[in-house]
Specification:
mainly beta, 0% helix, 11 strands, seven-stranded mixed beta sheet, 47% strand, four-stranded antiparallel beta sheet
């Protein structure tokens, strides 16, 4: 549906960095923004989430210390800065928003983007 639009994916070498962007509309840019990822043959998994004010953030243990989630509410845009990338980070990354509190559960998110491919070469 194009509720959210991700960009910034691509091919990088292990140890490199990428910044993903997620552009929303006033309708879809809601209280909580999250990032999820899905690798081939695997379930979609939580990556990071941030509250409206940025005061609350959560990260999956696998990305803690390497990824940083942020948002610019004036631009209806969210970001995921990914540093020290590893081959196991390879996946399609999706942004999502919810009208509730910060959550790690995909089912709690209402609006979704189409995804952007991130490939980390070894």
């Amino acid at each position: 549906q194009g509720q959210l639009v991700e960009s910034g994916g691509g091919l990088v070498q292990a140890g490199g960095s990428l910044r993903l962007s997620c552009v929303a509309s006033e309708r879809t840019f809601t209280s909580t923004m999250g990032w999820f990822r899905q690798a081939p043959g695997k379930e979609r998994e939580f990556v990071a989430a941030v509250s409206w004010s940025g005061g609350t953030t959560r990260y999956a243990g696998s990305v803690q210390g390497r990824f940083t989630i942020s948002r610019d509410n004036a631009k209806n845009t969210g970001y995921l800065q990914m540093n020290s990338l590893k081959p196991e980070d390879t996946a399609v990354y999706y942004c999502a928003t919810s009208t509730g509190v910060v959550s790690t559960t995909a089912e709690t998110y209402k609006y979704w983007g189409q995804g952007t491919q991130v490939t980390v070469a070894s």
